[in-house]
Task: structure prediction
Amino acid sequence: MKGLGKTVLMSAFFALMLFVCRAGAADLKIAYVDLAKIFDNYEKTKAYDKTLEASSTKFQEERNAKVDKIKELQGKAALLKDEEKKKAEADLEKQKNEVLEFDRAQRTDLTKVRDEKVREILLEIEKTVSEHAKKEGISFVLNNRILVYGQDTADITDPILKKLNDAYKAPKK
Result:
């Protein structure tokens, strides 16, 4: 009898939990976004990529000029007498170290700036998704990368992307 009582009690508990879950699920609205698509197609991301590319190109040009100067000095050093050659080699070593330090510092700076901008853009996307979800009564917004299946009607990527791009273009007018 005790086993039957526990079974009835457990069955009643699970039935109650099922009822509560179904009642709560009636108000549940879930959507998903393709964060990679939003990030890649956001006009602010594209504009920043151009800025970063220009900075990277400028850095590369400065670096190449320094390397060319070292190569030129190496060629001249081979023609010098022993004493002058030692002095030139010491100068070359110093310049090589300066180029390596310049290279390291510039790459670190570019990476830091890039990471800050990516973080800024991702926070902006997150804010826009949250505002959209609240406005539309969406309980959860998932990243499409964790989905096994999602109905196309639950995909809010395009409206989010439109809001971001419209807001980015607005101040320019």
